[in-house]
Amino acid sequence: MTVDTSVEHWTKSWGSNLALSHCQICDGNFIVPLTLETDLCPYCGRAVLTYIDEKEDKPAYIYAPEQIIPFSASRDSLQQKLTQFVKKSWFAPADLTPQNLSSRLQPIYLPFWLVDASAEARWQAEVGFDYQIVSHRENYSDSGWQSEKIKETKVRWEPRLGTLQRRYHNCPAPALEEHVQWRQLLGNFRTESPQPYQIESLEAAMVRLPNRPPDDAWPDAEASLKAAATAEVQQAAKADHIRQFRWSAAYSEQNWTQMLVPIFATYYRDDDDVVRMVYAHGQTGELAGQRRASLKKARRYAAFIGIGAAFLFTLSLILAVIGFFESAVLPWAGMGFMAAVGLGVTAVFPILIAYSINNFGIFTDAHQRRLADLQDAIWE
Ligand SMILES: [Zn+2]
Known about the structure:
Layout: H1 7-14, E1 18-22, E2 29-33, E3 50-51, H2 54-57, E4 67-68, H3 75-87, H4 98-103, E5 106-141, E6 144-174, H5 179-186, E7 195-196, E8 206-208, H6 214-236, E9 241-269, E10 275-281, E11 287-289, H7 295-325, H8 330-346, H9 349-364, H10 366-379
Parallel strand pairs: 4-9, 5-8
Antiparallel strand pairs: 1-2, 1-3, 2-8, 4-7, 5-6, 5-9, 9-10, 10-11
Helix pairs in contact: 5-10, 7-8, 7-9, 9-10
The structure holds zinc ion.
Zinc ion binds near residues 25 and 43.
């Protein structure tokens, strides 16, 4: 497919009052409403978006989508989840507040492909049928021999081959390099009731343009078609299993539909002024955000505990001096010293906790690992 990047074409297909923007860090191209003021790339949070010339910069794919899945997460539940996110953050940096996350929420649409294609194929596979065998096990105990019935399920495999000639509809294929990482982070989207794309459906949302045009995404679409065919063959054979499905197919009349799905992006700045991203699913409102603890705050807590321990230590010292004259006080001095040492040791905990959140989060928290995978994919 050739891409026509003339100005007339892209504004005609998308609608007016939109700008074509680019982020140098994540290398993303975006369609942004002119009314939208963004100081940072809402997709990666690392650079300022710049307007680009579609003739010179030639995005991989610039056509408007055919279908759009609108935002359906309620503002209230989203707000609640943002508040929860902040509450659950140990030693939250000063910038991490529900108000900041909420006011910086940016709706973004992500693209993916739905492919229709006609396939004419010869296939072969092994289909498997479950059957049960019954055997007996004889056990001897004090009460004598006892027979135990054992049911075992086995699979009978049969080779099959045939031809297949049909049209497939809406086989999904990724339009973004980082497609898999997005799905792993936020989960799938309900796509049963799409709306046709209109400029009005964007409102304040920006749109990520595909970085995998149809030519590039075709191998994935083909895999998706093959998976559909595999399921059909299994169903036709009324088999419980299928393996080693091979087919040689000729495809024709491919039709590509671009569909947009909704997400939110927001951010906060950590102690070092680094932007940390928080993303949300546009339908379920489920959040996935980077967690960073403030070492400054943790040190303050540690200092408080340290001061408490020092105070207790001084008090115990005074009691010990008094105990020199009045021995009944001595046990109190001893307990005071022990409590001071105990409290002193716990003073390192805030720093240890903050340090482990910042440095070991990706090993202990699945969300942090998926966010790291997504960022690797975006910045590659
Ligand atoms: Zn970016």
